[in-house]
Amino acid sequence: MATTLPAREVTLHILKQILNLQPAPDVQFFSEWQGETADISQIEQHSVDRVKGNYLDLIEDPPVLENSVKMVVLGPLLDLAGLYRRPFRITTETSIEIELEDEETVIRGRIDVLVLNNRLWLVVIESKRSDFAVTRALPQTLAYMLGNPDQSRPTFGLITNGTEFLFLKAQRQPTPQYATSRLFSLFNPGNELYRVLSILKRLAKF
After folding, report:
1. Which of 63, 132, 139, 180 has the most beta carbons within 10 angstroms of its beta carbon?
2. Is 29 exposed, middle or buried (0-12, 13-18, 19+ CB in 10 A)?
3. DSSP notation for 66-113
4. CA 201, CA 46: separation in Å to the nearest integer?
5. What DSSP character marks residue 193?
6. 48-87 per-position pLDDT tens digit
7. Does residue 142 have a pLDDT over 60?
């Protein structure tokens, strides 16, 4: 009888044991996130500047909940990237909870999975604490991505808690492997949403 493993209990070690999933040894495996932001127009820059400003104003009164992240940050980015238009269609998967032990306190977070055209997966983390890192959702996101019915092509993902953004690429064939981008943050100098938007637009073409 098959064993059902709750998504929140999935770890990178388990994915390695079950699927032989390994980090990609070649940095060029995930070259799609690299490059300049030449495809971001001045109007789009003004738009994402406004998004960042709205979010920084929002976090002055924590906690910033998942629906707020979707409305203030994720929604405008998806619109600017053209991901609300065909051939992309958004479907919402069942939310799951993740837990983190911190000084004898259990911190619960929830991730909500949005699927766009089966090739691009977006994960939003809701947490009671602003320092609930996006990396906490990495194993669960990879598990969803690797479960994509179309295993002939790689799948891309984005994990965000509103402040941090991490892109992923995973494939099952010919070798199960994955890679991540660097971590983008709204607290870094400048506006890293330029890069985030640029990467979203680039991934939408694959």
Report:
1. 132
2. middle
3. HHHHIIIIIHHHHHHTTTTSTT--EEEPPPEEEEEEETTEEEEEEEEE
4. 17
5. H
6. 999 999 988 887 776 666 667 778 888 899 899 888 888 8
7. yes
- Rounded distance between C-alpha atoms, residue 138 and residue 168, angstroms: 9
- What DSSP designation does 126 have? E
Averaged pLDDT for residues 20-44: 87
- Would you say the pTM of this structure is higher than 0.85? no
pLDDT digit string (tens) for 103-124? 444 444 455 657 677 677 766 6
Distance CA 125, CA 127 (A): 6
Structure tokens at 5: 């493993």
* CA distances for 157 relative to 53, 79, 130, 140, angstroms: 25, 17, 21, 11
Structure tokens, 34? 């690299």
Q: Give 191: exposed, middle or buried? Use CB within 10 Å, 0-12, 13-18, 19+.
A: middle
